[in-house]
């Protein structure tokens, strides 16, 4: 779940920050932060304007394609599934693993 599938076209070392995130049913936001740490790869996606949007974390395992030329990341989830994910809280994420587990539980439910 926390590794980018080899079939996506992602090139190690490419910073995906600023790329558009395309869900299965349309654009859901932009990558605000990207971590490529081994075994802990994820995207933090800003889902909209600062008043209405919020940030959610997407594990790299749901990435289906990366288009470097179009600066887009395609994921195998719908907009509603992504927007319904738990909110990403940077301070909480950085100091303990409980938030990462919360996201893992949320996304794993789609594979059960």
From TrEMBL:
It comes from the Bacteria. One of its GO terms (biological process) is photosynthesis, light reaction. Transmembrane segments: none annotated. One of its GO terms (cellular component) is plasma membrane light-harvesting complex. Gene3D superfamilies: Photosynthetic Reaction Center, subunit H, domain 2. This is PRC domain containing protein.
């Amino acid at each position: 779940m926390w590794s980018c599938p080899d079939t996506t076209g992602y090139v190690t070392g490419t910073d995906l920050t600023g790329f558009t995130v395309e869900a299965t049913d349309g654009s859901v936001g932009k990558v605000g932060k990207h971590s490529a740490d081994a075994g802990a790869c994820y995207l933090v996606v800003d889902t909209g304007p600062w008043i209405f949007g919020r940030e959610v974390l997407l594990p790299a395992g749901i990435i289906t394609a990366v288009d470097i030329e179009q600066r887009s990341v395609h994921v195998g989830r719908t907009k509603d599934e992504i927007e319904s994910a738990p909110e990403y809280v940077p301070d909480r994420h950085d100091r303990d693993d409980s938030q990462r587990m919360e996201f893992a539980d949320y996304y794993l439910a789609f594979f059960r």
